[in-house]
Amino acid sequence: MADIGHEVVGIDIDQEKVDSLSAGNAPFFEPGLSTLLRRNVSSGRLSFSTDSSAIRGAQVHFIGVGTPQSSNGAADLTYVDKAVEQMLPHLGACESGAEIVAGKSTVPVGTASRLSQRIAATGATLVWNPEFLREGFAVKDTLEPDRLVYGLPDDPRDAQEAQDVLDAVYAPVMSSGTPRLCMDYATAELVKTAANAFLATKISFINAMARICDTVKADVTDLADAIGMDERIGHRFLRAGIGFGGGCLPKDIRAFQARADQLGEGETLAFLAEVDRINDWMRASVIDTAAELLGDDLPTSRIAILGATFKPDSDDMRNSPALEIATDLARRAGSVVVTDPQAAPILAVNDDLPYEVTTEAQDALADADLAILGTEWHEYTQLDPHRAARLMRHARVIDGRNALDPQAWKAAGFTYIGIGRR
Ligand code: UDX
């Protein structure tokens, strides 16, 4: 927002985060973000504070707090509610036109309508404006989104005013032709939830096909290539492997099911439990394959896990399939070593880990009896299999992301096992 010309203040309750951001350091790894952060902090357009009164007088207030999973699977709305609570006393002080609160957090359908009245009582208007960015592509997805979605209030005048304000805010983004879709609150909330449910379903669908391919000795990568050529299906999100993780897809499909249950529509979304089950299954089946491959030698074997994050170009390890596999195998194998270019230093702070940690792939591969690709970081997909074979005690690899070239690895002497790849 600062980079496209606005004056921005970011509020957080965590003083450490605010200090780090004020110094131009993002508290997590995201390609390109630090450059933007520094440029705008030093120009004075962007500042951070723990004092919520700093929002007073601003025209647009974005809510971007997390909605983590609570123990029953539902989304925990504590942070959203607290953010609104802290905002309320400071709303109604904007002197330059209509004042807008724009919710970006992923919330159960019905939340915006619940919050809207208290916000309206201050004279401000609530818009639900879901966020679709992917980790690793956060900057690009924010500056060049596929679409902007505005969930607007029912009152046509309020809706038009809110739309005009947000259009002005997003004008530099929309000038490149980004479509902007206006709808009611509930639909806007559902767009986000439905998009993530669809993406998760697509991944579990191809993973189910991978299992069928394994059984009949077919190849899921050829299958995905061929079905993806049907434009109605498309190529993306059809990469079979150890499945989806991260802070969004797993929790969002569970929160969606929990909300559907409350609405008496549990049966309607029952298939999402199946999507989740297939996803868990992929992790378990790689663990089983590793155990089978190493057989009686498992308790003395050394296993290298390439990648700890839930996807490349991120340091996020929330619900990471790679890490779950590492943790489970560490209980059964002689030793497990995890390598990751971004996450290793974060993991290494914990001296209570069941596995070893290193940033260097070559150190992880040294004397290993099996390597498992858990995250398709560029440095791992570009590994020279001949060199890897020389480093390892036994040349065996499980390609948990179907991201290696089976021919090249086999030619280097590897026992290669992909997911649904003959
Ligand atoms: C996701 C949505 O894509 C994004 O629109 C939303 O705003 C937040 O949630 P993100 O969590 O960053 O984004 O990751 P994404 O790129 O969607 O990948 C999710 C998981 O699916 C990763 O663990 C990835 O490895 C896995 N995945 C993805 C597959 O296993 N196969 C695929 O074909 C694609």
UniProtKB/TrEMBL annotation:
Keyword Oxidoreductase: yes
Any GO MF annotation of the entry: UDP-glucose 6-dehydrogenase activity
Keywords: NAD, Oxidoreductase
GO biological process: polysaccharide biosynthetic process; UDP-glucuronate biosynthetic process
EC number: 1.1.1.22
Positions contributing to NAD(+) binding: 12, 17, 67, 106, 135, 251, 318
Pathway: Nucleotide-sugar biosynthesis; UDP-alpha-D-glucuronate biosynthesis; UDP-alpha-D-glucuronate from UDP-alpha-D-glucose: step 1/1
Catalytic activity entry: UDP-alpha-D-glucose + 2 NAD(+) + H2O = UDP-alpha-D-glucuronate + 2 NADH + 3 H(+)
Domain UDP-glucose/GDP-mannose dehydrogenase C-terminal: 304-406
Catalytic residues (UniProt): 248
Pfam families attached to this UniProt entry: UDPG_MGDP_dh, UDPG_MGDP_dh_C, UDPG_MGDP_dh_N
Gene3D superfamilies: Cytochrome c1, transmembrane anchor, C-terminal, NAD(P)-binding Rossmann-like Domain
Keyword presence, Thylakoid: no
Positions contributing to substrate binding: 132-135, 192, 237-241, 245, 311
Sequence similarity: Belongs to the UDP-glucose/GDP-mannose dehydrogenase family.
Protein's name according to its UniProt entry: UDP-glucose 6-dehydrogenase
Lineage of source species: Bacteria, Bacillati, Actinomycetota, Actinomycetes, Actinomycetales
